[in-house]
Specification:
Blueprint lengths: L23 H5 L3 H21 L2 H14 L6 H18 L3 H7 L10 H10 L2 H17 L4 E7 L4 H12 L7 E7 L3 H17 L4 E6 L8 H4 L6 E5 L14 H4 L12 H12 L5
Length: about 280
């Protein structure tokens, strides 16, 4: 007879990368604990077959996941639903034309301002980082008369408006400031440009806004229009990770070497080399 209390008995969570043969009715009858383990197994199996190109098996796994996952269910069901959606997108991206056709509607799919505000309220560390970045930029650029600041994907007025105000109050008076913002959303760029131009006018500051409606992967030095004599400042907030992989070509850019050490991501290395070649101010 076992003397171990039932509460201390650990469930069997062995993960198997095989396709379940359970029927739809038996899947739906699973207990929450078993359902969670099954979802994890199915997600791992789907990811494995999606990476190796076994699309039919990956599709079968997604069908089973759809019977167990739910965006309105418990935490593991919600998580599985979003992971399954991402895996499905990865499968469709193997046909670029099909993927673009399904994701082209001529309008912005997401209103980014509200999610950004929610994120800022839930994680105040982003606001703290803005304060620190602004202070460093103002201190570093205080003596410069012609400044070019490059925003690699943030597009947040909460970062740039305090910078305008800080530079405008410098002892030598407002400098000439140009801000180039790289962002994939035209709506974000338009809103940022309007806010910054209005703020610069109120501060009587010579200002120029250069919006680039592209992704970081498409960026080239010529697009930034960096001119001789400009003090260059470059910022990036939560965006460089997009360079670590391009669609499904992860293995070609990022992986393990023969000695099992992580290789440098070629795309990231090239991008950082480009940034360094522009000689931003230390």
């Amino acid at each position: 007879m076992s003397l171990v209390p039932p509460s201390l008995i650990k469930p069997d969570v062995t993960l198997r990368l095989t396709l379940s043969s359970a029927s739809p009715s038996s899947l739906e009858a699973l207990k929450p604990e078993d359902r969670g383990i099954t979802l994890i197994q199915l997600l791992l199996t789907t990811a494995k077959h999606a990476s190796s190109g076994n699309l039919h098996i990956a599709d079968a796994c997604l069908c089973q996941i759809s019977q167990l996952a739910s965006v309105t269910g418990d935490s593991i069901q919600r998580l599985a639903a979003h992971f399954a959606s991402a895996l499905a997108v990865r499968l469709v991206k193997r046909w670029p034309g099909l993927y673009r056709a399904l994701n082209r509607d001529g309008s912005e799919k997401l209103e980014l301002v509200r999610p950004q505000n929610i994120f800022g309220q839930a994680f105040p560390y982003l606001g703290f980082s803005y304060v620190i970045m602004t202070r460093i930029l103002v201190q570093t650029l205080a003596e410069e008369r012609v400044i070019h600041a490059i925003d690699l994907g943030s597009g947040d007025p909460k970062l740039w408006i305090p910078l305008l105000r800080g530079l405008a109050s410098s002892a030598n008076g407002p400098p000439h400031l140009k801000i180039t913002c790289v962002h994939s959303s035209k709506v974000v760029l338009d809103k940022l440009g309007t806010r910054l131009v209005k703020e610069a006018e109120s501060l009587d500051m010579a200002f120029q806004f250069n919006p680039l409606n592209i992704s970081l992967r498409e960026l080239t030095p010529d697009m930034l229009k960096v001119r001789s004599g400009e003090a260059l400042a470059i910022t990036s907030v939560l965006n460089l990770h997009s360079l670590l992989a391009e669609d499904d070509r992860v293995d070609a850019h990022f992986g393990l070497g023969k000695d099992d050490e992580v290789k440098v991501c070629k795309q990231m290395a090239q991008f950082l080399a480009m940034v360094q070649s522009m000689s931003p101010k230390d």
